[in-house]
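User: Reviewer 2 asked us to show a designed sequence for the structure in our supplementary figure. I'm pasting the structure tokens here. Could you produce the per-position amino acids so we can include them in the response letter?
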């Protein structure tokens, strides 16, 4: 594979060839090639959002399938994740540069026991791009981290991410603790992550489940708009 890769000059590929090649490079954890591919697409006038979704997120989706099927293992997936993060590092400032008016503040973190952070980072980036201040608590957060940060930051929104069926129930621990402290209603609580669904979001008492980063942005905006008028969206 490495020898074949040596022969490929990314800049000479058409967009239709380059994007699948980037999926392959992500699969193979080839960080430098991913950085180069992202820069080439941006140089060709692609929007940062399209580069993110069509080249990187789609590539990671393919990695996810082979991880599930036992074709890829943790070390390979970690390399792919690192390559993805290198690409996201280039896109982050570009997505944040939209000059969108200030919308509010979100505290976001991955729940206790869970170290997946790519989706959470992506949500944070997109929220910043939409004009939200984002306080990222990172991974493996116990309930105290969330509550302390919400109060310290005077945030409007709590975002929680979980990628494992074993860690998603922890979101309810956080929401229950917020209720016990009498602060639940002070914040909009949005949850997301691959194993969640709308029903789960409702069952744990979140305000909304967000399927992806774009939905998170739209949902957050909607809630902030209704908050201004002191009412919940239907
Ligand atoms: Co893990 N892993 N992993 N993993 N991993 C999954 C989640 C899994 C589905 C793979 C599989 O089997 N198909 C599976 C979970 C199965 C289950 O619970 N049912 C799994 C497993 C089992 C594990 C380990 C247990 C493996 C092991 O050790 N044997 C282990 C657990 C470690 C732990 O957390 N304690 C583990 C480890 C890892 C790596 C470290 C190797 C790596 C993580 C690297 C990192 O994140 N820095 C990894 C990866 C990369 C994955 C997959 C392949 C990809 C996840 C990802 O980044 N997707 C994943 C397979 C999959 O999800 N199909 C898998 C891309 C990202 C853009 O999408 O994260 O879904 P996603 O985020 C989306 C939406 O979900 C949503 O918006 C995002 C952007 O659109 N969203 C939110 C996410 N969070 C949100 C928060 C919001 C709103 C929306 O707040 C408002």
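Assistant: Here is a per-position design you can include in the supplement:
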């Amino acid at each position: 594979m490495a020898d074949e890769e040596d022969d490929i000059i990314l800049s000479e590929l058409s967009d239709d060839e380059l994007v699948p090649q980037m999926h392959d490079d992500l699969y193979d954890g080839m960080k430098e090639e991913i950085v180069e591919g992202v820069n080439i697409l941006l140089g060709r006038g692609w929007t940062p959002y399209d580069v993110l979704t069509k080249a990187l997120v789609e590539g990671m989706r393919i990695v996810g399938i082979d991880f599930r099927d036992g074709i890829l293992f943790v070390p390979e997936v970690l390399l792919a994740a690192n390559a993805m993060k290198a690409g996201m590092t280039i896109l982050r400032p570009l997505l944040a540069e939209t000059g969108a008016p200030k919308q509010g503040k979100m505290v976001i973190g991955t729940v206790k026991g869970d170290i997946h952070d790519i989706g959470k980072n992506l949500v944070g980036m997109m929220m910043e791009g939409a004009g939200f201040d984002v306080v990222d608590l990172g991974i493996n957060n116990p309930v105290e981290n969330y509550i302390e940060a919400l109060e310290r930051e005077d945030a409007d929104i709590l975002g929680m991410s979980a990628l494992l069926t074993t860690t998603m129930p922890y979101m309810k621990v956080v929401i229950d603790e917020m209720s016990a402290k009498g602060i639940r209603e002070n914040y909009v609580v949005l949850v997301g992550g691959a194993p969640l669904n709308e029903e789960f979001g409702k069952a744990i008492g979140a305000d909304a489940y967000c399927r992806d980063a774009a939905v998170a942005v739209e949902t957050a905006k909607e809630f902030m708009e209704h908050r201004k008028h002191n009412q919940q969206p239907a």
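For the response letter, you might also mention the following. The chain has ten helices and five strands. The chain has a mean pLDDT of 94.
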